[in-house]
Amino acid sequence: MVAATVTTSGMFNLTIGTFRLAIDIAIGRGQVVAVLGPNGAGKTTMLRAFAGLQPIDEGSIIVGGQVMDAPATHQFIEPEQRSVAMVFQEDLLFTHLSVSDNIAFGLRCQGLDSRAATVRANSWLTQFDLVEFGRAKPAQLSGGQARRVSLARALATEPQLVLLDEPFSALDAAARISVRRDLRRYLRRQETTTILVTHDPIDAIALADSVAIVESGTISQFGSLSEVTSRPRTDYVSDLLGTNLLRGVSSQSRVKLSAYRGEIATSTVASGPVFVRIHPHSVSLHREMPTGSARNIWAVRIVGFDFLGDRVRVRLKGDLSIIAEITTSSLTDLHLAEGDEVWAAVKTTEIEVYDD
Prior knowledge:
alpha+beta, Rossmann fold, CATH 2.40.50.100, 9 helices, elongated
């Protein structure tokens, strides 16, 4: 899906206590943007600002070409008057209403009469596979079913912007896959502009056109999923992808590292500040100093293991702290244990270099 025009944008600052959020983002019609970042980075606060639940201090928020919040011109549209729907981490369903009436609630608030709202709500029961639960109360639903009702209630009002705050976090694996699939089908069919906050990269892969990384109250990286994953620019993104990310200054095909002693030899000729990316599976481990073709060799100590099926991530510290990924059979053959001193080696052709 390619967005033709920007319909939602936010360039704003707000401060809550000692925390400052400074956001600059533009989203095209029908785009789905996944927002990832560490806890406390400001992701949910960003959603609350778009929803009108947290007024901004400076800048503006525009949805569908209409100014929602602009302190300089004293413009502020109340949350209930915005064409914006927010789905919180908790379902927040009305326990005394049936599933059908929960979905119809927002429609009635928009002015539809009871019969018209019920007819439209029933169509959403079909879209989210809830027909048999129309007359049920929320207490009778499973977690996945309740989440479907929350999503249907938000989407039934046909908002210009949908805000989703960790919508699958409370679901088990099977329900997560099923609900994500149904949501994806709706978003693609209706071209609904959506901001999705998540901690799960799979959500971004399955649903999003673009990814925004929020760290310490700002967007540190924004672009397509392939752009962000192929060239991570922060330690958070690097850790999320399970790769080694280093910074340094390149001269010809050698990079002097910023955080560690020494240099790294690469096969890329570059000049100036750069990022150096090394995938863990490119790091080989040896009991004795290797004599092969690898030009990057470091003496390191094993500080821990992370087991991933038939593979193991080995955390290493020394002149260079790095993660290696080897097979469980290699772990056994090398008789590796925490605290062991080993050699780590990387070939120049296995190192990616790109501008900082």
